[in-house]
Amino acid sequence: MFQSFHLTLAVRGGSGVKRREFLDYVIDGRPLLSLFDDVDVVSALAADLPARALIGAVDGLLLREASSLAGDRYVLYCCPECGDLGCGAITAAIVQHDEHVVWRDFRWQDSVDQQLERYPDVGPFRFSADEYRSALEQVRCRQNW
User: Fold this and answer.
1) Could you tell me which of 116, 131, 109, 105 has the C-alpha nearest to residue 27?
2) Pick from 97, 92, 75, 71: which is nearest to 2 by CA?
3) What per-residue confidence (pLDDT) applies to 143?
4) What are phi and psi of 5, to 5 degrees?
5) Per-residue pLDDT at 112
6) Which one of 22, 64, 83, 142 is CB 3.0 to 4.6 Å from 59, fit for a cystine?
7) pTM of the full predicted structure?
8) Counting beta carbons within 10 angstroms of the beta carbon of residue 15, is it exposed (0 to 12), middle (13 to 18) or buried (19 or more)?
9) Is the pLDDT confidence value at 145 over 80?
């Protein structure tokens, strides 16, 4: 059984914080970010990223580019101010098996090697590879904004 996957525009902002628009991952109709309590992050698909950086983020999620993190881990959410892994990020292992893509082993990570906190109640999620690719390809072509 697959979970549905699509993206939706989200906004981080409020009193005293930098406003950021980003695409959030929606799984079975629920924004993924809502599963993580009290974290101030934006997705790796921020609207104000230069085109090259956005395409790189999408290509990573599509597994077209190897991750710089160990264990096939990819950054899903990062610091809304600077995007630096040193500030902390939510990462997940992403793997493809035939006709599906799996996101599993969600963690709060604050460096390339150190993983601080697991999110055992989040995931794993299995998506149809076609639906997953289609949603991310729209971002790559900037059709989903």
Assistant:
1) 131
2) 97
3) 47
4) -140, 125
5) 64
6) 64
7) 0.91
8) exposed
9) no
- Token digits for 138? 């729209």
Residues 76 and 25 sit within 8 Å (Cβ to Cβ): yes
What is the C-alpha to C-alpha distance for residues 20 and 145, in angstroms, rounded to an integer? 14
Distance CA 127, CA 95 (A): 11
3-state secondary structure of 93: strand
End-to-end CA gap in the chain: 29
Looking from the CA of 114 toward its CB, the CA atoms found within 13 Å total 7
Q: Are 27 and 3 in contact (CB under 8 A)?
A: yes
pLDDT at 1: 85
- pLDDT higher than 70, residue 66: yes
Among 11, 130, 113, which Cα is nearest to 68's? Answer: 113
DSSP 8-state symbol, 101: E
Token pair for 59: 């290509």
